[in-house]
Amino acid sequence: MSNSIVKFDFKGSKQILSELDWSRSQNKRFSNLHSLASYLAMFCPALPSYFINKYSAENDLVMDNFSGRGTTALVCRELKRNFVGNDLNPYAYVLSKLKVSTIWKTALLKRIDEIENEFNNWFKSDNKQKINIIENNEVLVYYSKSVYNQLFFLREKYGKNWIKNADLENAIIAFALSLMHGPIKKDSSTIYFSLSMPNTISMAPNYVKKFALSKKLIKPEGNIFEKIKNRVLSKFDDILEKEYGGKIYFCDSTKPFSKIKNESVSLVVTSPPYLNMVNYTNSNWLKLWLLGYERIELNQKIKLSDKFNFEKYCEFIFSYLNNIYPLIKKGGHICLIVGDVYDKELILDVWNVIKDKLAYEFVEIYYDYKYLQTHKVTHMLNSKIKNGTKIEKVLVLRKG
Q1: Which helix (H) or strand (E) holds 382?
Q2: DSSP string for residues in 85-139
Q3: What does the longest C-alpha to C-alpha distance in the chain come to?
Q4: φ/ψ (deg, to 5) at 185
Q5: 71 and 42 Cβ atoms separated by less than 8 Å
Q6: How far is CA 173 from CA 33, 162, 165, 200, 221, in A?
Q7: What is the C-alpha to C-alpha distance for residues 364 and 357, in angstroms, rounded to an integer?
Q8: DSSP strand pairing (82-87 vs 247-250)
Q9: Mean pLDDT of 214-243
Q10: Would you tell me how many other CB atoms lie within 10 Å of the CB of residue 100?
Q11: Are 259 and 102 within 8 A, CB to CB?
C-alpha cells in the first residue's frame, strides 16, 4: 500500500485519504529552492501544499509563525497566496527572507563577484593581522585557513548584518549558509566549505577534531565565492524574479503580532518547536557563527522556546494560539504540525489540556502512518529511539 494520510477523531474512527502522500518524490512538483538548506524538524513542501489548497484560495493570506527554512512561505508563493511569517532564530529568518524576496539571478551573480573583489582588496590590506589574532578559533577545526579567511570576511562584512541586509546580500548569506558544512565525495570533491560531515547538524568541535584525526579527514581548499555562485546556478528559481508581497519578521510568536490587521489571515500552517527535543541553536551553531554568534554564547543571545516540559509546553501552545486568535478570519483554519514523542500522543494530549480555554473548534487530526522516525532528520539527534519523534501529526482547528 502506498503512503497515505489517515484522518481520525477522538472516537478513533479512521478514514484513508488518497489526496496526499507526504513522502512522494517532489522533484517535478516543487521548487529546487525547497532543498537549498537543511533545517531540523523541517517538513516537505507537499505537507503545507495540501492544507493550503484545502483551506485557502488564491490571494488569501497564509501565516507561519515558526517559519524555519521558509517552506510554507515558498509554497504560498508557488500557489499564489500571500504570506506573512516570523521566527526568532536568525538562521531561519535569513532562509525565510530569501523565499519572499524579489531577486534577479544576474544581479545576484554580479553581486557575488563584487563581494569577492571586496574580499581580495580587504585581504591585501592590514586585515591579515586581524585574522591571525583569532587563528586558534575552534571554527578552524572545520575549515582550511584559506577558506576560513574568506568566511571570516563574509561574516564580518555581511553575516553580522543579517537583520539589516538588503535582499541581494541576504540571498548571498542564505546560499552561503547552505554550504557551511556537508559531506565530501569519494573522489574528494565537495560543494561544501568544510571537511566531511553531515550537512544538517553542526557537530561539536571536540568530537569533529577527534573524528577527523582518526579518519584522516582533509579540510578542502577553494574559492567560497565560486561555490556560492555554483549553488545559485543549481538552486535558483525564476519564481524569485517575480514580484511578491510576502513578509517575514524577526519576532516572538507568543507576543502580540501587530504587523497585520485583525481577521486578515485565512490559514495558519506552522510547526512549533518540538517538546524538549531539538536545540535549534546548538544544532546550527556553525551557521549561526557566520551570522556573528559564538558557540559559547548562543543560549544567552538567542532565546528559543525549545526546552519545555509537558506542562510548560501546553502553556506555550495555549499562549501562541490565544495570541493569534484575533488575526484569524472567522472560519479560518489553523494547522499545527507537531511530532509525537514516544511516550505521548503529543498534540492530542496538549489539545485535551488547553481546548476548554480556547475559542477554536476542533476539526480533525491528520497523520501519515508510514512516515517513520527513521525518515526524519531528527533521528540522528539521539540513538535512544524513545527520545525521538515517532510520527508527524497535524492538528486542524477552525475559528468559529
Answers
A1: none
A2: EEES-HHHHHHHHHHH----HHHHHHHHHHHHHHHHHHHHTTHHHHHHHTTT-GG
A3: 71
A4: -75, 165
A5: yes
A6: 14, 8, 9, 17, 20
A7: 18
A8: parallel
A9: 97
A10: 22
A11: no
Residue 147 and residue 222 in contact, taking contact as beta carbons nearer than 8 Å: yes
The Cα angle at residue 291 between residues 42 and 320, in degrees rounded to 5: 45
d(CA 331, CA 360): 10
pLDDT band for 305, please (50, 70, 90 cuts). low
Ranges of H-type helices in 178-309: 205-215, 224-235, 285-290, 298-301
Please count the other Cβ atoms lying within 10 Å of the Cβ belonging to residue 240: 22
Identity of residue 396: V
Distance CA 198, CA 183 (A): 6
**The pLDDT of residue 369:** 56
Beta strands across the sheet bearing 247-250: 14-17, 5-8, 360-368, 389-399, 328-341, 265-270, 61-64, 82-87, 247-250
What global pTM score does this model have?
0.89
C-alpha grid cell, residue 259: 504587523
Mean pLDDT of 271-293: 84
What's the one-letter identity of residue 399?
K
**What is the number of other CB atoms lying within 10 angstroms of the CB of residue 73?**
29
* Calpha distance 42→26 (Å, rounded): 15
**CB-CB contact of 378 with 338 (8 Å):** no
Distance CA 173, CA 167 (A): 10
Q: What is the dihedral of CA 156, 164, 225, 233, to 10 degrees?
A: 160
Q: Count of residues for the chain? A: 400
